[in-house]
């Protein structure tokens, strides 16, 4: 529940920051903040040996190429559209996740799964119509759709690439990778 609250506050906060802070440094700051929060918690809960035994090179590769890229595309896309459009596009993540599972893992479409996808899509339409908003499609929306795809792939890769780590460890390794890659890219730009 706390993660949902933090996520929901992130879109309006990003709206305020996107003007004065370019997307890449803003993404690097957000990833670094997440990493700075998660690393000490992971170390405290699981110890030094687990942190040192993690495959950091893989975490940097996966985190940077998927989670970092996805976060950057979301911030850059939001700069070209609005928070409402970003929120509605982000709500498509379960649909993208299911499509990835069907394509890559051979998951069978069940009746319940189809109903879940339909309800997810209906919720997005209702959110759009209920607020009398118009979905601002264009380059910003395309970047946000790409963000959802890349981020969802990254989430899957995080789980499948680190089977021996706890969920906290998996998340921390790849978010740290995203922080490293986006920070290096922001400094190089």
Structure write-up:
It is globular and about 45 Å long. The protein has one domain. The protein has 189 residues and is mainly α. Helices cover 84% and strands 0% of the residues. Helix 4 crosses helix 9 and helix 5 (83-90) packs parallel to helix 8. The protein is built from nine helices and no strands. It has helices at residues 2-18, 23-46, 48-53, 56-80, 83-90, 93-105, 111-130, 139-161, 167-188.
Task: Give the helix/strand layout.
Blueprint: H1 2-18, H2 23-46, H3 48-53, H4 56-80, H5 83-90, H6 93-105, H7 111-130, H8 139-161, H9 167-188
Helix pairs in contact: 1-4, 2-4, 2-9, 4-8, 4-9, 5-7, 5-8, 6-8
Essential attributes:
single chain, 189 residues, mainly alpha
Total DSSP E strands: 0
- Name the poorly predicted regions: none
Tally of separate helices: 9
Query: What coarse outline follows from CA principal-axis ratios?
Result: globular
Can you give the helix content as a percent range?
over 70%
Major β-sheet profile:
none
Distance between the termini: 36 Å
Cα radius of gyration in angstroms: 17 Å
What fraction of the residues are assigned to beta strands by DSSP?
under 5%
Structural class: mainly alpha
Mean pLDDT reading: 86
Number of domains: 1
One letter per element, helices H and strands E, the order comes to HHHHHHHHH
Short précis:
This protein is mainly alpha-helical.
